[in-house]
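Please, structure for the following, as tokens.
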Amino acid sequence: MSSYEAFGLRLQQLTNGEIPVERGFNDFVGHVDTLNQLLKVCPGEIEDDLTYLRDAYSAGLSGSGMALLSSFPKLIDPELAVVEGRISDFIAERYGIRLDDGEYRGGKLLGVSCCEAWPSVCSPLSNNRFPYAIDTSAANYFGNQFWQCDREEDCRPRFMWVPPGGRVTFAGEYMHARYFAFHPNDIDSNALGSLVDVDLEPDTGSANPFRGPVPDGMRRRFTAHFDFSDPPAEPAPNTRYVGTKKNGGANMAVLNTLRIAGADMGALPPNSAGVLLPSVTISDAQGNVVRRYEEADPYPPGYQPPLDTTKFAALPIPDHRGIYNAGKLDTKHNWGVAADLLASRDYLYVSSQYSHRHGEIFVVRAKALTTPRTPQEPVYAEGKQVRSWTLNTYNIWAGVSRQAKQDYEVVLDGDGYYTVVVCAEADLPSNATAQNGVTWVDWGPYLDGQLTWRFLMSRDPWLVQLKQAIDTGEESAEIAPYVPRVGHCSIAAFEESGWSAAIPQRPLELLALAE
């Protein structure tokens, strides 16, 4: 058998799930093993490209720390799109398998931040790229990095200098959004605990709009701190002590992300939720100011927000999770990598994988947790179960979110249930319409993908119950209707039977108890 025949056979076997793939809690284990199996039989003309792709995904196998962070450049290098494109071209030319129009390019990031204190600005709709599975529904992100050392000249590139034992102070306005928070991460990229909107004590003369209405004459301002020291017996409000790593030992660096979700003005144009970005003041251990940056507009009139022009082809290599995890839910984040990698512990992440191997249609059915309808309702509206939730579809090889829906964009039936159909537009069943209580989410031109829910806030009692039910498989009658049920079916089956073609009916007695 020639190498071309062997490679084609191996690709088909992997796609059909006919040969085992090594798997683990870390999803990258299976992705790397898939590529290794192809490398064993690949023709020489694509060996270098497959090796590059394998090595890029091997970055996710690293445990944590600066070694992990330093290994990620291959995953965000536009060259990855070119490499995957050449592999896609080879498969199309040799085996006649092409999932999309074949267009790809190793673009570049156009534009830079105009805020010196916030050098990283990201609208997910303009920077929708792996390795972070970002929320593209009215979310915006801003970042800065701080390095603690004796002399400013020894500070690492792209970091702001903080003297030993120093402090970083943020001062600004509460944002007009469903959620915002500061997320400091240590040098190992592990979360040190967020500073969340509702928990931030307001400045004197101000009120926190996430707790209740702001009285006339009151402002909406807060002040928050990162202290490069160990936490005292009685921690100060609005402060995270970042001098020690999450897993112990002195911490030299903080990678901070200011996350905004559900901005009142939507996702586009890119925005900072109606306010200036907070000022940043850096002080030494004695309280002497060594650097100050004023509040700033990240997107002033006429400014071109950073835009990533990279485009991936639809790579016809299967994602093992779509084959082996179909019909299951999990609550892990960041692909199961050991480090937090800038993930938010304020979210409950719930994911499920889908694959064309199981059917053209992936169906989701659940009762919707109630949320405030912002901005018409405040986030503190009474009688709501959770702050918000969103749905996103992803493809691991392309590293992008195909489509996202906020909770209020998902159609509910008269009993408060939603039915979501994930499929390519060409596969959309004729009865999968909003009039029939169905929300369509685009699968895209891929073999398989991942659907991820983001629920806020993870500490809310309903979400604590939901996570426990998914993790243990044990559902109380109260939470059972809210646990998503997922399954695959054909177009014809859905057109004949609706969602029940993909999802078995639950026992009537459980339904009766749940209702």
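Residues 109-308 form one domain. Confidence is low (pLDDT under 50) at residues 508-515.
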